Amino acid sequence: MQKRFDRPVSIFVGLGFPRDIDTLLDAFHVLTEWTGSRGADHAQASASCREALAGRIEMSQAREDFETFARNHDILASEALALTAARHARERQPVG
Fold this sequence. Notes:
Layout: E1 4-13, E2 17-23, H1 24-33, H2 40-53, H3 59-72, H4 77-92
Antiparallel strand pairs: 1-2
Helix pairs in contact: 1-2, 2-3
């Protein structure tokens, strides 16, 4: 049985396509396959996923750490969309 998050974490993957990560195993795969920088947030999220898979910590902690990782690497879809919309609005404002 898949260990599902209480709500998915939406991230951008590949060429900027959104993907909902709704299971612990999906989050762990994203972290394992990550080719970008692997700092402390990556290590924390990976460790949390391993611990949650083993039942040693709560799923909510693993989800929170994965979301922090996604936010820090600008792949968290909800925040990236909001930033893009704000940037677009600024660019469309009349000058003067």
